[in-house]
Amino acid sequence: MDPDTGIDAVFNWGTFDPSRPWFIPRFAYGDMQYTLSVEPLSRFVMGAQAEQRGIVEQELRLDQDKKQAIWELLLDNMRPENRAYAYDFVRDNCSTRILDLLLAVDAVQRVPAGDEVTYRSMVGAYLHGEAWLGLGIDLVFGYPMDRIVSAKDRAFLPLALEDLLDEATTPGGESLIRQTRTLLDLAWEPVEPALTRSEWLFWAISILIVLHTLRVGGGPSALDRFLLGALGSAGLFLLLMWVGTQHWVTAWNADLLWAVPTHLIAALWWERMPGLQMYLRASAIVAGVALLLQLAFFDAMPSAVIPLVAAIALRFWMSSSQQWNVVHPEPA
Question: What is the Cβ-side half-sphere exposure of residue 268, based on CA atoms within 13 angstroms?
Answer without folding.
Answer: 7
